[in-house]
Amino acid sequence: MLKIAICEDEEQHKKILVDLIGRYPFEAEYCLTTFKHGYELVEANRTGIKFDIIFLDMRLDNEDGIDVANEIRKTNATVRIIITTSLIEYAIQGYSVNASDFLLKPLPEEKVFHVLEKLEHDIRLSKNNYHEIEINNERVFIKCDEILYFESLGRKIKVATFESEYEYYYTISALEKELDSLRFVLCHRSYIIHLKNVKSIKTKTAILKNGTMIPISPKRNQKVYDAFTRYMAGLIE
Questions:
Q1: Phi and psi angles of residue 202, each rounded to the nearest 5 degrees, phi first
Q2: In whole angstroms, what is the distance from residue 161 CA to residue 145 CA?
């Protein structure tokens, strides 16, 4: 799910942006949060709400949008920040906070939709290349190609790579919904394997490229075999 924030102190422009985002045909589900003050956005970010996209007004009441963006960047280096401004001169300052784009008010629909299309595409590619987890309020990005398997450990998930293992609080059911079903498959109620790193499939067992043997439940055996076959066929094509 995409997490989107709007930080805008002018109600007219906020309503326009909320309406445009609501009418854009997102491919994924999204949630939208609005803020009137920059310090509210910074506090939300500090307490662990990690937004994917932020529309940030450059000239908030008694606040500088660049200062707000710099505070957010301290704990969220990957968020896409879109500068909104009435003066194009302010947009140039966005480069100092690695802004993804800028929108010149009064926020034309065509431009807003173009920006959203580009951002959704970029975020989808990024999430396909990296798996993001949170450990002790710190975001950790793991290359998907390095992931061997996920294992459910009660309230935690263990993710094993060729070099390391990580544990974090999550559920296997939620994880299955988030992962790319063409690359990852639930082979057992406690295991999800990465098909890229499977060496072979045997009855009741997936043998990974590092030699690890992962159990396959009898009722999932055919599904896992079919998924592995499709994956390998896709590589040949």
A1: -120, 170
A2: 9
Candidates 3.40.50.1970, 3.40.630.30, 3.40.50.1100, 3.40.50.2300; correct CATH number of 1-126?
A: 3.40.50.2300
Sequence-ordered alpha helix ranges (H) in the chain: 11-23, 38-46, 65-73, 88-92, 109-129, 172-178, 221-236
In sequence order, the β-bridge partners of residue 152 are: 157
pTM of the model: 0.60
Residue 9's closest CA among 66, 60, 65? 60
Q: Which of 104-118, 121-135, 216-230 has the lowest mean pLDDT?
A: 121-135
Element spanning 101, H or E: strand 101-104
Burial degree of 222 (CB within 10 A; 0-12, 13-18, 19+): exposed
CA distance 54 to 92: 17
Phi, psi of 136 (to 5 degrees): 50, 50
Residue 63 has pLDDT above 70, yes or no: yes
CATH 3.40.50.2300: which residues of the chain?
1-126
